Amino acid sequence: CERFRPVTTTPVPAPAFVPADRPRRLRRTPALRRLVAETRLDPADLVLPMFVKEGLTEPLPISAMPGVAQHSRDSLRRAAAEAVTAGVGGLMLFGIPTVRDAVGSQATEPDGILNAALRDLRSDLGDSTVLMADLCLDEFTDHGHCGVLTPSGAVDNDATLVRYQQMGVAQAAAGADLVGTSGMMDGQVAAVRAALDAENHLDTGVFAYAAKYASAFYGPFREAVDSALQGDRRTYQQDPANRREAAREVALDVAEGADLVMVKPAMSYLDIVRDVANDPTVNVPLAAYQISGEYSMIEGAADRGWIDRDRAILESLTSIRRAGAQIVLTYWATEVAGWLRA
Ligand code: PBG
């Protein structure tokens, strides 16, 4: 496509204007474009979120997320090994228990599905990858909220912190390298850090979902974790209208001892990613989470033939990295790692 043969002999008028600068020079060939690319994707920067469901004997496809499944314990082990072989930087686990209750008891049971799966993967994979777990109660509560409720049905911040502390300790004991505090309770990073230290899990890090917005793009995740949620999470997750508030949330998490911080979702919040990346007071690694709805939007449009799937995937991930996220959580991690290695 670099050398165009004229298709018409119609005479072209002499140029009326000759540009002094020609940025197109550097776009002429794939080799030139590769040389001057400012952002590169590397499998090591990609983290694969994975779902494991108690009682399954084989993977169960998630219809709202074509290509993503709820795993059985065995299929999780196989998919995790495949991701590690492809070179992904880490795995983020979500558990779906059979029994749910008001306080999310299964989140803190050593043999609860999430903790059992962490043990499986730690024993299979040793230190060959970074094992992370979602530290939030919504997959485990019968009401589907990220915390425990007051008698009137509000999410009780400080009572929830106690459960997060127990959950963090259970995940650390099960082998998590990093616990992903995603519930947006005030003080959750400090609370979990203190509990980990008190139980001598000094090397277990806190991966803080620091700026997490109340997004409609979490829609497909509801099916992914069989969520029972009535209502929404707007009393604890951030209002999409707010930008400065994100700086406050991130500053708090860093001050509370977060080892990494995350912005979530990614694609509608690239300004927030850039703000945090540019903030000189944030001196920990920055991640962004390309969430379920962002995944399904692209899969859905590609399925209808409206966009080129593979190019759209790479463009979306490149854009998140370009905005300033060093690490990207994406359901395409294994597939894209394969492309990048090929
Ligand atoms: C909380 C949590 C959610 C997601 C990750 N952690 C759900 C929510 O906050 O509503 C969403 C991830 C996605 O949509 O891909 N447990």
Bound molecules: ligand PBG
Tally of helical runs: 11
What is the first-to-last residue Cα distance?
Answer: 24 Å
Helix percent reads 25-40%
Number of domains: 1
Annotated CATH homologous superfamily: Aldolase class I
Q: What is the overall pLDDT average?
A: 96
Low-confidence stretches: none
Instruction: Specify Rg, calculated over alpha carbons.
Output: 22 Å
User: In this structure, how is the largest beta sheet organized?
Assistant: 8 strands, parallel, barrel
Percentage of residues in strands: 5-15%
Please report the first level of CATH classification, the CATH class: Alpha Beta
Active site: 212, 264
Binding site for Mg(2+): 249
Subunit structure: Homooctamer.
Catalytic activity: 2 5-aminolevulinate = porphobilinogen + 2 H2O + H(+)
